Amino acid sequence: MKLKPEQLGAQLQRQLSSVYIVSGDEPLQISECCDAIRLEARQQGFTERHTYHIDNSFDWSELLETANSLSLFAEKQILELRMPNGKPGDKGRKALQEYLQNPSPDNLLLIITDRIDAATQKAKWFQQLEKTGVFIQVWPVEHRQLPGWVAHRFKMAGYEASKDAVTLLAERIEGNLLAAAQEIEKLKLLANGNIIDVDTVREVVSDNARFDVFQLADTALQGDVRNTVRILGGLRSEGIEPPIVLWALAREIRLLCHLSRLKSRGISTELAIDQAARTHGFSPFMLKKRRGLLEKGMSRQSERELRQMLEHAGIIDQGIKGLTPVNEWDELLTLSMTLAGAPVI
User: Fold this and answer.
1) Nearest CA to 209 among 229, 251, 168, 237?
2) What pTM was computed for the model?
3) Is residue 253 a contact partner of residue 313, using CB atoms and an 8 Å limit?
4) Where are the beta strands (DSSP E) in the chain?
5) Beta carbons within 10 angstroms of residue 190's beta carbon
6) How far, in Å, CA of 15 to CA of 10, rounded?
7) Are 181 and 149 in contact (CB under 8 A)?
8) What is the pLDDT, as a whole number, of residue 197?
9) Which residues contact 163 (CB under 8 A, 6 or more apart)?
10) What is residue 69's predicted lDDT score, i.e. its pLDDT?
11) How far is it, in rounded angstroms, from Cα 337 to Cα 334?
12) How far is CA 194 from the centre of its chain?
């Protein structure tokens, strides 16, 4: 059964399935879907939880042994597989198919992956999983859909936001749903009753953490390593979530990478900024005001090095999603210092 994230709540109310596959690239929706499944499972007695990070060295027999180890007095258990790219390999496919031949009602299998491609969805092992359980495919919220998403979020929390308030917040969060969720929580605390107006939004978003993460990116572009480290430490101590920091850094690195590629083709900086602004959703006017910072960033890093930094950002993203065992704050420090031009060992 294939569902959209917004259909999951109703499905859980009807019946808890024995298998769930949550797939996609948008961390907030992935996290909220998994939390909803775990909560309903706990309420139905699945009090044990075993988490497995799947890589080439994973021993799939461990999963099967745990699945078959329940005694008469054991608790029901959640078997959670965090599987980047959704490709289990030959041993994994066989193990999953063996698991599905006789699944215990005392086990709930939860598989969390990045976006699963069309070819994988047609594979026999995946179709067996989907036939047995529920496949939730999470797609990013498009820019044009964002106001509706924000309005729905307020409504679900019991608040009514004006059209101007919704529009302003959607513009400020620029597609970052984690940042949006944090801003909405702040607005709920400051709201006059259950009404959110544009003045309240303006007050909150003009003095929020996103200014600081932008400051982090600008300081790194400036090449100020010492202050880059200081600001990152401040963000962490203030409780800013790693995905928001990563979003701000990756956004600048992608922009630099694109600008560097355009300049390597002989395109003038002025025209390159215009083209990159359109591609990445920046205001050309505002981007040109940051021209000096961008040129400093490009002067320290080649396009190849910027691509390597994007690959590093991807690894951190995997870690944040729980798909790769990394210390996300240590990796964010390395990425920030690299962007600032510091030699990182």
Assistant:
1) 237
2) 0.59
3) yes
4) 2-3, 19-24, 48-53, 77-82, 107-113, 134-138, 160-161, 195-196
5) 11
6) 9
7) no
8) 87
9) none
10) 81
11) 5
12) 29
